[in-house]
Amino acid sequence: MSITETKIALGPCTIATLASPDAAALVDQYCSHLQCQVLASETLTAAAAEQWGCPGLAGTRYWLLGNIRGRPWLRIVEDAQAQPIAPLSRAGWMSLEVLVEDPDALADTLASSPFEVLRPAADLELSDKIRAVQVRGPCGELLYLTRIADEVPPFQLPQAQCAVDHLFIPVLASRDRSAALTLYEELAQHHGLSFDTKVTVINQLRGLPLEQQHPLATLQLADNTLIEIDQLGDLAEAPRQDNSLGGGIAMVSFEIDQLPTGAKAHCHGEAPYQGRRSCTVYGHDGERIELIER
User: For the whole prediction, is pTM greater than 0.90?
Assistant: First the structure.
């Protein structure tokens, strides 16, 4: 059975969460330079903070951001203890691949912004239908700002409907791609793909030969989204703190048909939950995963 004939239980990936001691400034940076808009601004409830494993953050503010069409894809949380991290330094969520219309033009606008362009826009080795520019954000988060020009079999990928559209591939830095992939395959109820390919930005940031190949895995999700897993060496363990989400990409949220058996379910009324059941689980590399029932 092909992937197009398979009902995928997991996905889409919907929202990435960043934390900052100056969250309002970070919100402004994303709105000013990556064309986001504020869809909601809320106080984090004790129940939500408990679900995330950070009860000390109860009562802080968070902002839900989306594109100009109103699709949410980023949540920014006020967190006094969060500090930027060095990219590729720890296991866990490494990068957010965001759908854009024109990565070259967008890179030009970021030249004097808090978003550091790491390499010029270029076509991926995987396909010349995929073109991306890699950017380092203010929290140490990596952003792959990507255009999909046409179909790229066997993957199901979206095409941008506005200049900066939405998150469609969260990228995980893992010590072991096979072990990391297993959890997501169980949630999605189908198998992923494993292969080796060049990832130029990793080679640049780690001082490796630019042509060096890396072990990767991908897993197709619902709504033309994916997960990518990059196996890397010398990764620090992702820390867990009761009072902080930490720097970098703190969490990625996914819709799912049904929460895993045995997961502690919560029900929150505020955005983005709107009363749907949700839970937080942790992956092989300590990454925080939020699951929200459809």
Answer: yes
